[in-house]
Amino acid sequence: VILVVTLNPALDVTHHVPRVDWSGVNRPVAVRARPGGKGLNVARTLHALGAEVLAVGLAGGITGAAVRSGLSEAGVPAAFTDIAGETRRTFAVVDDHRGRTALFNEPGPPVSAAEYQRFLASYAEALPGCAAVVLSGSLPPGVAQDSYAELTGLAAAASVPAVLDAEGEALLRAAPGRPAIVKPNLAELERCTGRPMSGPAGFDRAAVIGAARELMAAGAQSVVVSLGADGLLAVTGDGLWHAAPPGEAQGNPTGAGDAVVAGLAHGLALGRCWQERLRHAVALGTASAAAPAAGEFRHADYRRLLGDVRIAPGEAG
Amino acid sequence: VILVVTLNPALDVTHHVPRVDWSGVNRPVAVRARPGGKGLNVARTLHALGAEVLAVGLAGGITGAAVRSGLSEAGVPAAFTDIAGETRRTFAVVDDHRGRTALFNEPGPPVSAAEYQRFLASYAEALPGCAAVVLSGSLPPGVAQDSYAELTGLAAAASVPAVLDAEGEALLRAAPGRPAIVKPNLAELERCTGRPMSGPAGFDRAAVIGAARELMAAGAQSVVVSLGADGLLAVTGDGLWHAAPPGEAQGNPTGAGDAVVAGLAHGLALGRCWQERLRHAVALGTASAAAPAAGEFRHADYRRLLGDVRIAPGEAG
Description:
Two copies of one chain form a homodimer.
Chain A: E1 2-6, E2 10-16, E3 25-26, E4 30-36, H1 38-48, E5 53-60, H2 61-74, E6 78-83, E7 88-95, E8 100-105, H3 113-126, E9 132-136, H4 147-157, E10 162-165, H5 168-172, E11 181-182, H6 186-193, E12 198-199, E13 202-203, H7 205-217, E14 222-226, E15 232-236, E16 239-244, H8 253-270, H9 274-289, H10 299-306, E17 310-313
Parallel strand pairs in A: 1-5, 1-9, 2-7, 5-6, 9-10, 10-11
Antiparallel strand pairs in A: 2-4, 7-8, 12-13, 14-15, 15-16, 16-17
């Protein structure tokens, strides 16, 4: 079982509106509501890959009930800890005509210390025997910024490798927990270090490697940086690789990042070597970027892309 | 008891976003979710007036549960008929900085004939002894366009006067049911008749009266047209009145229209004469337009405005 932790899930509501009137009344031509938050996209992708998953985290109120029932409809096993607050929504307004999307992300519900402790107990109970754990997304108000270090530490104590996808404080404070893989994207790494790493000529390879090594010095066992159309750069104890998709990756970047995390966790659980792990992660990310919604991909795209991913061993920059 | 029928209720979600980025990620500074749909605004206003109300209609799914629990929290008695479909949401993005609001109204859920029949049975059971019934808002898919005529006819058979606030087909087809009061606004009346009735100099009084008389010829017992800042024009079997608020009415037009309906129904239930009924309806509408959300008003505003409403008897145009 791959345990997927989503402490701040959401009900993602998407409205497709051909030509949005920003100061008037709009009637969406298509409406979609589904469980969201980065962790749940990862869980859905793993489920679609045929992996056994268990989604855990914090959920409350009527929106929390909608998240639970949406996962149940999708066949994704879940065991959320109940909280008194109301799980958040996100709203996406997609203007298909103009090719623009506006996202409105509600803040998470307040979480009490007692609620977080109840989650921690059920998390510790679920860990033994898991093949991997994924820790993904933002922390709701009331959950300490170093919580991911605590969760990673508990996983390490149970010999379960952890994949972490977080940003800002939550990412920086997590490193001492010794996560097996940390997966920031380029923008997150730039914000984390306060240094620019991309320009008109693409990403600055030496700067990215330098920042990854800093996260490793802080405790991370490996760092995989997602570079959008440039694929993945993996800085690990076993070596350094750059895995790139064929041609230009296009589409939904959120979905792509979450699919990369799913691919990395799946590879860990299956005991794939780094190169295979990266090949699958890039193919899955590229296939998912082309899908209409996060957590979805076409298996045919995934299989076809597996053969097209270019893996290059890198020299330490 | 005033029975308030809302066949297509909604969960109204409002995001306050200071400067909306229509092609990026926004973090609302304030989020609000509450039961909506015109009928539920009327029910809330009546409840705030101290009237006994019962909200009925169709509700389903998790959003329907949110509507029910929101009414319960507000202390508004409700007895909705359960449907298999999911009650709709509306989503408002309020850009306080630019003074603009974008509204996204989901379509209603499909309603089966059996579900509508179950509603009809509970409606017929609730009618006897009611002081008035309010029929307000759109009809969800699957509910016949002449349903308001059927509901008004059942009310008439139980000697309960009906106030109808609908538009388009639902309004035109309702008249034969002989509603006591029909309350279109000027734009709805223009769409109904296909004739323009307003210009730079204000509304065309003779045209409005003519259109009202057509609705009366089709069966409506009286027509009260809401004219925004110009107040109300009432065309009735007992006479013709124009009731105007002092100065310019400002603010939320949706809330104002629903409050006018509440004021008219309250006046019917209390046996107020037309002039008193209109005075209260205008004061309530004006007070509600100044409130931040539909279904709300300040009692002090309402009481103060009661003395300022100007009522003029009109000559038949």
